[in-house]
User: Fold this.
Amino acid sequence: MRSDKPSPGTHGHWLYFGIALALIGTVYVLYGANIIRWRNSPDFGWRTNYSYGPNVVAEVFKAGDAAGLQVGDTILAVNGQTYDTFDELFFKIRNEQPGSLNTYTVKRNGQTVDIAIKTGQQGLTTVLWRSGSFYVVGFIYLMIGTLVFLMKPRARESWLFLAMTWFIGMTVSYASPSDLMRPLWPV
Assistant:
C-alpha cells in the first residue's frame, strides 16, 4: 500500500539547514552592523596582526606612513606605557579621540625612534575598503554553497560542499575587521 505522506525523517534536512542558515545569517547581520558602525572608529594609522602579536606593525595607513611608521616596526611603548597584550593595546594605553596624538616608541633596525601619529576617524569609504570587500567575497562563497545545496539537498556531498563553502566564506568575511567586533563578549 502506498502512502502519500512523507516519512518522519524526510524533512529533517530542511530543519538543520534552516537552523544553520539562521545562525550564520545572524552573525552576518551583526558583522554588517559593525561594518557600518566602524565608520566612526578611530584610525591610528597602522594596525597589527594576531599572527605577529600586538607589538609588530603589520599594515601602515596614510597617517602612519606620513609620520614615518613602517611595516615590521616593533612598538615598544605607546604614550610612554609598555604593553604585552592586545587587550592592553586596544583598551588601556592608546588615546582614541580623533585629533589626539599618540606617541609610539618604535624599534627599527636596532634603533629606538619616537613617532607621533595623529588619531583620525576611519570613515565609511575606508571601512568598506578594508573590511567590506572581504565581507562581500565571503558572502559570495556562502551563496554558492547554498545554491549547490538547494539543487540536491538530500545528497551527502551537498552537505559537505555547503559546510566547506560556509566555513571558507565566514573565514574570508571576517578576515580583516576594521575595529573591534561589538558586542564584546565577556572573556
Q: What stands out?
A: The first strand starts at residue 42 and ends at 43.
